[in-house]
Amino acid sequence: METKGLRNPERISHHFVETVKKAQSGDKDSMEDILTLFSGDIEYLSKFIMLPREEAIQTLTIELINIVHQDL
C-alpha cells in the first residue's frame, strides 16, 4: 500500500535526466528549470566562496551550466 504524498525516485530521476538532455540540446526552459532546482544550493555555497556574493553566485551558476553541457 502506497502512502499518499511519497515521491517516486525513479520517476523524478527520469524526469531530471530528460530535463538535462533537453537543456543540452539548447532548450532554455529546461536549463532554467535546472538552475531553479539548484538555486538554493547555489545561494548556500556562495557563502563559502571568498568573492562578493553576486560574483560567487554568478560563478557557481556558470559552472553548473558548464557541467550540464559537459557530456555533449
Overview of this structure, please?
- The chain is mainly alpha-helical and 72 residues long.
- It contains four helices and no strands.
- The chain has helices at 9-24, 28-37, 39-46, 53-70.
- Helix 1 packs across helix 2 (28-37) and helix 3 (39-46) crosses helix 4 (53-70).
- The longest helix has 18 residues, at 53-70.
- It is globular, with a radius of gyration of 15 Å.
Please supply descriptive tags for the structure shown above.
mainly alpha
Task: Give the percentage of residues in beta strands.
Answer: under 5%
Mean pLDDT: 89
What is the count of β-strands? 0
**How is the main sheet built?**
none
In one word, what is the shape?
Answer: globular
Low-confidence stretches: none
Query: What is the chains' assembly state?
Result: single chain
**End-to-end gap:** 41 Å
The amount of helix comes to over 70%
Number of helices: 4
The SSE string, one letter per element, is HHHH
Alpha carbon gyration radius: 15 Å
- The secondary-structure class comes to mainly alpha
Write the layout of secondary structure elements.
Elements: H1 9-24, H2 28-37, H3 39-46, H4 53-70
Question: Would you summarize the structure shown here?
Answer:
This protein is an all-alpha fold and 72 residues long. It contains four helices and no strands.
